[in-house]
Amino acid sequence: MSNLVVHGGTPLRGRIIPSANKNAVLPVLCATLLTNEPLRLLGVPDITDVRKILDIFRTLGSDVQMDHATGTLDLHHHATTFDAAHHRLPEEMRSSIMLVPPLLARFGVARLEDNVKGCTLGVREIDPHVEVFHRFGGRVERAEGSLLIRCEGRLQANHHWLDYASVTTTENFVLCAATAEGTSVLTNAASEPHVQEFCRFMALIGVRIEGMGTSRITVHGGTQLRGGEFRFDEDFHEITTFLALGAITGGDVVVKNSAPENFPLIDRTFAKFGVTITHEDGWSRAHCAGPLKVQTPFTSNVLTKVEAAPWPYFPVDLLPIFIALGVRAQGNALFWNKVYDGALGWAGELSKFGAHVFQSDPHRLVTFGGNPLTPAVVESPYIIRVAIALFMVAASTPGRSEIRNATPIRRAHPHFVENLRSLGVQVEWTSEE
Ligand SMILES: CC(=O)N[C@H]1[C@@H](OP(=O)(O)OP(=O)(O)OC[C@H]2O[C@@H](n3ccc(=O)[nH]c3=O)[C@H](O)[C@@H]2O)O[C@H](CO)[C@@H](O)[C@@H]1O
Ligand SMILES: C=C(OP(=O)(O)O)C(=O)O
Q1: CA-CA distances (angstroms) from residue 86 to 61, 62, 110, 142, 388?
Q2: CATH class for domain 2-19+235-431?
Q3: What are 101-122's pLDDT values in tens digits?
Q4: Main location per UniProt (predicted)?
Q5: Which CATH class is domain 22-231?
Q6: I want to staple 190 with a disulfide (CB 3.0 to 4.6 A). Which of 1, 89, 165, 390 is the partner?
Q7: Ligand 2 contact, 174 CB (< 6 A)
Q8: Would the pTM of this model clear 0.90, i.e. be above it?
Q9: Quick one: which atom of ligand 2 is closest to the CA of 94?
Q10: Can you give the residue ranges of every domain in the chain?
Q11: ipTM of model over 0.90
Q12: How far is 294 from 247, CA to CA, in rounded Å?
């Protein structure tokens, strides 16, 4: 277990170049297994989920050259072997599920461990994925502690309509469809920036896709896929995180941002807490005139509200970061997680800082912000963005705080502590067995 120890109270100042989005990098890595041609990926972050996938590639016999200093990854999956009895796909990360379609395409079989749940956000269903495998002609059966998925011959193109716009199920559909002969159509597809980025990679290796970024995606599959070179975009989660860190500490943080068109709703959400975001010449900056303050709605008898749901709604993974702002800002705000039913249970940890937060039901939480806070030792659940939210509160509170079990941050944010130090934070990792 690794803990983050921070001496808070210093306003963060400086510039950050964000890393790539883990939730774009991981499906792309899985998709690389669809081609036998060499590939070069640029801007690959040094995060633990990436290391786990690269380890799997090495056990399959792929040629993997990862230069962590430059973020350049050369991959060549030309002579691979797979043994469902012995190979284990990485656990505790959701993206393992997206290794299934390329394994089916290569070996006709894949074995998925039960613990591919990723962050502990409540129920994370596997059934929508199983439905996709079935639709393409896969057979799914229970094995001890895992699922075995098989297919005879090629997957079959099909049309499918999802119950809800699931990110990884959409990506799995596109992966299956790329290998299936003919045209497949997915309705109620997810459209997050990382799903779009993944689709752009698929197009680069030769998959013909229509409707990326919309709720209906059409894939013309079955063609021989090629190699190539692909550079990852900047991560909107990391951009938002550092802007929020600047705002909560009363500092001045500027973050490189090449896609401000993804930010109008995120910017308006910052504004609800008194933070103005500006985008200029490829950089974004957070500015607060005075202490954080929750905006008062014009409608009477309602709370200022942040409502997270599948894109283009406010992104659910950013909700904890804004809960931290809510705790600091004078006034009351309602946070509504429409995606997960178990993502707010950590609110009790905030009270250790002296914050007043009330979880009204599994999906909703109210912050009564602006209380004076004191440093604290808190325990993070296995949720990347909650470890960050707890850190944000600690960083804005003068004195020594400790975020125990902050390791999940390493799943998504490379060089997190180094970045923070460059902004003036006194912070370090401590470990215990
Ligand atoms: C590797 C990766 O990309 N992980 C992301 C991906 O996970 P993932 O693809 O697992 O998330 P899904 O979009 O499938 O949603 C997760 C769960 O939320 C529930 N659900 C979701 C949407 C909905 O309209 N109704 C509903 O009930 C379901 O129980 C579902 O199992 O998308 C999530 C939602 O943006 C993010 O939190 C994760 O960081
Ligand atoms: C929840 C997340 O990831 P995963 O789905 O891999 O757990 C996340 O990236 O915030």
Answers
A1: 14, 17, 11, 16, 36
A2: alpha beta
A3: 999 999 999 998 887 778 999 8
A4: cytoplasm
A5: alpha beta
A6: 165
A7: no
A8: yes
A9: 6
A10: 2-19+235-431, 22-231
A11: yes
A12: 13
